[in-house]
Structures are given as structure tokens and as C-alpha cells.
Amino acid sequence: MKKVLYCFMALLFTPSMLASEMPLNMTQGVTDISGQVYNLHMIILYICCAIGLLVFGVMIYSMINHRKSKGAVASNFHESTKVEIAWTIIPFIILILMAIPATKTLIAMEDSSDADITIKVTGSQWKWHYSYFDQDIEFYSLLSTPRAQIEGTEAKGVNYLLEVDKPLVLPINKKVRFLMTSDDVIHSWWVPAFAVKKDANPGFINEAWTRIDKPGVYRGQCAELCGKDHGFMPIVVEALTEADFEIWLASQKNAASNAAAEAQAALSQTLSMEDLMTQGEQVYMASCAACHQPNGAGLPGVFPSLIGSPIIKGAVSGHLDIVLNGKPGTAMQAFAKQLTATQIAAVVTYERNAWGNDSGDTVQASDVSLGTASPAASSESNTDIPVNLPVAEQANTGVIDTVIDDVKEAVEEVDLSDLTMSELMALGEKVYMTNCVACHQATGTGLPGAFPSLVNSPIITGPVTDHLEMVMNGKPGTAMQAFGKQLTAQEIAAVITYERNAWDNNSGDTVQAADIVQHGQ
């Protein structure tokens, strides 16, 4: 029996003594917070092992030494005050001892103040959108695992389903604040090495932060059941030294400049049907196949088939519009800022001619740039820049800024007509629900302590010029972005009018596109 007892004690002690070497144990990660979480985990593990050792040790001892074969006679007692007090006080003390380090760690995890960098993380089915505040950089990060590996026709790679086309790049030794939200359903941004796991809820903003201690590539994934392709939504973070991070920022600006030049050149190019179909298939498999399936058949009742559908058989303009601007109330996203004009032209051509559709239609980049997008999209797309690049990737580059300014001036010269109050409110609500609602909420009440309320706020009740300045140029050091280069003059005028008159603000103020142009001069 002694051998049995020794074996049992060894099993109890082994997890706590060798936990750090066990492959299934929690890892320490690469941040101070992840280290605190690991230490908290080990403290709780040691307490559980001690409790297990004590409880099972007493139980086994009693079974061995107080068994019937040894002539033991069971005691007959009840309603022992001492026992009642003991099994109430002792667990209470244990819980207090566990709560103290746990509370300290939780408080540290929630303290995102004094951040050096703020990044907005937006989840959508099934990709992540990253926006670097104060750096004017944004991009989408998509799964890059080849479809052949997913379908099993090729051997799985080392980072199967944990690789992306564009990783999130962060500097080490800097406090990075994350603002998490979603475009559609609930997602969860989870990187175990950082001990960061935070839900991204549509219409709400959650906060998290990290400070990475050493360079490297760290992987995670969406930890919320967000749809049928939930497992195809990975996260990859590349941590660089501060010097390398500055080099990366410069490379992004240079890439934006080159992409703008390529976008401009694409407007004069005419691709053959074969080239469009080849590129269109690549774009479709990367961006569309998850919903509409590789064979275009969709999922009945969930995602519509593209084989002989009304969109495919209808006018090209309608097809372009839904790809560029999406379809509100459905899972169909707007790809105007996710794909280049050439890519959109190619995928529309592919969809109209694949799977036996055989329409014979070809779409070129110039058709996308000058086509039939909604007013919000088409007004900015005369040079193809908003379609080709996320707005933030166009910034910080003199060439890009000049082109955007020229485009805006050309557009505004064409459409500076005054709108009625009802027209401004209708357009303003659309712009607000697209660009502002994630922070300030649909009711304008914001999120106390994070994003200010717009209901009778000083900005709303103050001079219109101050309101214009805030929307156009943002507010440094806060999450308020500059929308002067993201929205048209008419959209800015409409959203300001909406904010000053919605939610019982009722200022009666109206702002027109001409006011925006005059303010910017």
C-alpha cells in the first residue's frame, strides 16, 4: 500500500514541478502581461495540486488505516460546529488568496492608457482590417494558405491555416493599444503569445493592449464561432525593432506611391479575356470562394449561387455596384477599398463567364473607375485611387496627396449643389452609420470613458467651424480620425448636419459642400 501512496503523490506533484516543461501547459508568451498571466496560472495550479494532495491524501490514508479488516469502527457524530466553521473559513481564505493576484493581473490587462500606438482592429467574415491611427496606414489581412492545401490535394504547410498575406506589423518596446470592433458578426482577436483575447462586437468598441519584448512572428486566430469559415480567419503579428518598424513605415508609403502610379497606368490598359479570367479566378478564390464556393454554387439559403443569377445575367453596372459597395443587411461586403480596380474588373469578368455563364462580357479597370458605383464611391474614383488603395495607405505621400486633392477639386467643381435638410439628413445618416457608429454608437451616446457622446456635446452645440475642423482634421492623441481625405465634401457636409440635428440636438444648422471647400482653402 505504501507503493501505491508514493505513486499517487508523485502523480500529484509532477504537474506542478514539471509544468513549465509540459507541452500542453500554458506558455509564458513574449509580453509582461502574458508573463503575469502565466504566473497566475501556475499559482492557481499549485493551489489546486495542494488541495488535491491534502484531500486525496486524507481520503487514501483513511481507506488504508480505518478499513473494516483492521477492526475500525465508524464514529457516529453530526452537527459539529467546529467542522462547519472549518469548511467555511478555510475555502474562504483560499479564495481570497487566489483573488488578490488575479485582481492585480486583470487590472493590469485592462489598463490601456498612455499608449504609444493605437490600432483599430475590425473583424469581418473572414478577414481582419487594421488601421494605424496617426500613421494613416490601413490594410486587410487575409488567409494565404493555398486552396489546394485546404482541399487536401497538396501536403499541409508548416503554418497551415495560420498564415496571411499581410501581417500586422508592430514595434517592440512600445505600448500598443487595440480598439476592437466588427463589421458583421462577433469575432474575437486572440494572440496567445500576447495574452490578448478580446471580442470584436458590431457597433461596439472593446480595448486591449500589448507591449512586445522581443522581435518575432506570433500567430493567433479568431476565437469566436463567427460562421462556417471561422477556422480560416488567422492572425499573424510581425514584431520588429523600432528601427526596422520605421523602415517598414517608409516602405508602406513608397508602396502606396507605386500602387497609385500602377493604378493610374491601369486605366489605359486593356486586358484580354484570357488575362482577365486568369486574374479573376485568383481574386475569386481568395476573396469570394468562402461564401459563393469555388464552383459558384453558393450555399442554398445562406449565400446565393452565381450560376445564372440575376446579378450575373443583368447589367454589368449592377454587378459592379454590388461588388464595389456590397449589399446592406447581408454578408456581401464592399470591396471598393479591398481590391484594386483591375482586380475588381477581373473578378467581375470571371464571374460573368465562369461555370457556364458565358456572357462574353469583359470589364476593364477604366470601367470600374468611371463606372456605376454609388455616389459615395464614384465621386472619389475618377483616378481609380480609392478603389485601388485603402485611403490610409495613400496618405503621408506628397504625390498621393496631390492626386487626391486634384480628384476632390475636380469632383467638387462638378457637384457643389445645395441639398435640402431632408436630403442632408438622409445622406448624413448613411455616412454616420458607415464611418462613425463604431465609436459614437447608433444613438450618438458614445462609450463613456472611451468615446464622447455627441448628444448636446460642446462640439455639437458650439460653432459649426469647430465641428468642421474636428471632422476634417481629426484630433491628435485620440481615436478621432481625419476624414478630410476619406469622404467627399458633400458627405462631410451631410454627416455634420446630421450630427447637429439628430438625437434631439435640433440645432437647425445645415452645412453644404461649398462650406467644406471654403473651410479647406
Secondary structure: number of strands: 10
CATH topology of the largest domain: Cytochrome Bc1 Complex, Chain D, domain 2
* Largest sheet features: 5 strands, mixed
* Terminus-to-terminus distance: 91 Å
The CATH architecture category of the largest domain equals Orthogonal Bundle
Mean pLDDT: 83
Regarding CATH, which class of the largest domain? Mainly Alpha
Give the neighbour order of strands across the main sheet.
Answer: 3-2-1-5-8
Give the percentage of residues in beta strands.
Answer: 5-15%
Shape: globular
Number of helices: 21
Structural class by SSE content: alpha+beta
Residue ranges: pLDDT <50 for 5 or more in a row?
A: 3-12, 371-414
Describe the structure.
The protein has helices at residues 2-18, 32-65, 81-110, 147-151, 242-266, 273-287, 289-292, 310-313, 316-325, 341-353, 365-369, 375-378, 385-388, 391-394, 398-414, 421-435, 437-440, 458-461, 464-473, 489-501, 513-520; strands at 117-124, 127-132, 137-141, 168-171, 176-182, 187-191, 196-200, 206-210, 216-222, 234-240. With 521 residues, the protein is of the alpha+beta class. The protein folds into four domains: 2-66 and 80-110; 117-240, Cupredoxins -  blue copper proteins (Immunoglobulin-like); 259-404, Cytochrome Bc1 Complex, Chain D, domain 2 (Orthogonal Bundle), CATH 1.10.760.10; 415-520, Cytochrome c-like domain (Cytochrome Bc1 Complex, Chain D, domain 2). The strands form two sheets. A five-stranded mixed sheet has the order 3-2-1-5-8. A hairpin with a 2-residue loop joins strand 1 and strand 2. The longest helix has 34 residues, at 32-65. The chain crosses the membrane at residues 43-64, 85-103. Keywords: Copper, Electron transport, Heme, Iron, Membrane, Metal-binding, Oxidoreductase, Respiratory chain, Signal, Translocase, Transmembrane, Transmembrane helix, Transport. One of its GO terms (cellular component) is plasma membrane.
